[in-house]
Write a structure and sequence with these properties.
By secondary structure, the chain is of the alpha/beta class. It has a single domain (2-273), classed as 5-stranded Propeller (L-arginine/glycine Amidinotransferase, Chain A), CATH 3.75.10. The chain is 21% helix and 25% strand. The chain has helices spanning 2-9, 48-64, 110-117, 153-163, 237-245, 256-259; strands spanning 15-17, 20-27, 68-72, 88-90, 95-97, 122-124, 136-139, 142-147, 169-174, 185-189, 192-195, 209-212, 224-226, 229-233, 250-253, 270-273. The strands form five sheets. Strands 1, 2, 3 and 16 form a four-stranded mixed beta sheet that branches. Strands 4-5-6 form a three-stranded mixed beta sheet, covered by helices on one side. The protein has a three-stranded mixed beta sheet with strand order 7-8-9, covered by helices on one side. It is globular. The model is unreliable at 1-20 (pLDDT under 50).
Length: 278
């Protein structure tokens, strides 16, 4: 624990990657992970030690791609807390404390927000609004937000108001049969999204090249993009081949135990470009 605390307290040194500076906030796997919230996957036994090892490997992969990784300590009070993306959003100019749709997750964000507050002005989604970070996909100044059970219209409206001063637009997107928007679509290149058309309305993404997931790999649309690099689960080889055929460099990680908790690669980190804060 002391080692983690020292890591969290240190200055935000960063590493350049493709001309940009990146930091990732992560949180270690809770020993209570097996009690996680589930909506669209069946509950199956989770190997905690393996989940922790996979998360550590995920952090090393981010580091290998040029990212400083801040690892917050695990918290047994919050089974889902490894999925840090859901509790906060980081834009170049501002950080936003979300208000997760699941009651059990409402108090998760304290330590994460302490970190973000060091480098960004902080704003909040307030009741009755709800918003999960997994429902928010930013592509340039366009912010797409999933209409899900976790993110309500009031949350969408508050996000639009909070981001308007910096010229962002917020567009609500219909999703179905999945937990979050980024379960169904993520950005994988400057002009390209990876998409599961069975789960999301593709119309809002008409301006982008759309790579569809391979047949039989329904959950394959979630990827972490950082600069020109892409971090991607290793369990979707056919979709990975499609990404590589499109000229996208892919680094893979095993997140199979975290997937049992309805997690994915985007939700395990909050990425920030350094030097961009207002």
């Amino acid at each position: 624990m002391a080692a983690h605390d020292a890591l969290c307290a240190r200055s935000w040194d960063t590493t350049a990657y493709n001309g940009r500076m990146w930091t990732a906030i992560t949180r270690d796997v809770s020993p209570a992970l097996a009690k996680c919230e589930l909506s669209f996957v069946d509950r199956t036994p989770i190997d905690l030690a393996r989940a922790q090892a996979q998360h550590a490997a995920y952090c090393r992969a981010l580091e290998s791609l040029g990212c400083e990784v801040i690892r917050l300590p695990a918290d047994a009070h919050f089974p889902d807390s490894v999925f840090v993306e859901d509790v906060a959003l980081a834009f170049d100019e501002v950080a936003i404390a979300t208000r997760p749709g699941a009651d059990s997750r409402r108090e998760e964000g304290t330590k994460v927000l302490e970190q973000l507050g060091m480098v960004r002005p902080l704003r909040r989604i307030e009741a009755p609004g709800t918003l999960d970070g997994g429902d928010v996909l930013r592509i340039g100044k366009r912010v797409f937000v999933g209409r899900s059970a976790r993110s309500n219209p009031e949350g969408h409206a508050q996000l639009q108001s909070l981001l308007a001063p910096w010229g962002y637009t917020v567009e609500s997107v219909s999703i179905r049969d999945c937990l979050h928007l980024k379960s169904a679509v993520t950005q994988v290149a400057e002009d390209t999204v990876l998409i599961q058309p069975d789960w999301v309305d593709v119309t809002p993404f008409a301006a982008y090249r759309q790579l569809t997931v391979a047949p039989g790999e329904a959950h394959a649309a979630n990827a972490v993009r950082m600069g020109q690099a892409l971090l991607y689960p290793d369990c979707f080889p056919q979709t990975q081949a499609r990404l590589q055929a499109a000229g996208i460099a892919v680094t893979t990680v095993d997140v199979s135990e975290l997937q049992k908790a309805e997690g994915a690669v985007t939700c395990c980190s909050i990425l920030l470009r350094r030097g961009e804060a207002a």
